[in-house]
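fyi for ur records
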Amino acid sequence: MSATSRLRMGSDSDLLLESLMKWLHTFPVTAARDTIENVCDGVAMAQVLNLLAPDQFDTTWLSKVSDVGDNKRLKLNNLRKVLTGTLDYLKDVVGMQLSQFPLPDINKVVECDNAHLGRLLQLILGVAINCSKQAEYIQAIMEMEEQVQRVVMMAIQEMHGMPTHSIQSLPILEDDMQVKKLMEEMESTRVEKESLAQKCHELEMRLNLMKEEKSNLSAEFEHLQAQIGSRGNGGPV
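which gave:
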């Protein structure tokens, strides 16, 4: 993806953060998220991830991301868990390729840098539109104001490697056909991923069966060798 196709670091990154902060407010979490400073400790983001994919971001994982006050080092630990968990989900569960995506720097997120916090929220958006309740979350986006729809649409397109332009030039997600097309594309990706996962599972089962057969043959061979050795030494048959 060329540099010109990415979100700009000026006004566009500010609009990205503003829109994704509004999107973050659509989730019923207990952590404070009224200001950028509140969000930069990672707690609200972790609670949202727990709502989006509770199997991957379970209560045990969530308990490790807690309110740490003004302790910068512990905030960084929170943010590291959020970023690592989100990337693992997108790569391992969704199968998303992020090699060309400019990842956020948590050292800048903890300093409330707009561009890098926006990037981290964008990755969490990627979890929302690829989780089991994707239709529900896309519908929630559809119900937000038009400007937010434009920004979110561009953020989604960028993560999927599609060419993006300036936020102001993007179409509004104003009809069901656009949403249907987007969901069909994501569903196609999901089906393909599940098919590959099934093939991997089948190959793994075949490999385990072959290992078991090899182990049995090896044990039988050793038993025969022992019998031959016993006969050669004049032992009982």
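The chain has ten helices and no strands. thats all i got for now
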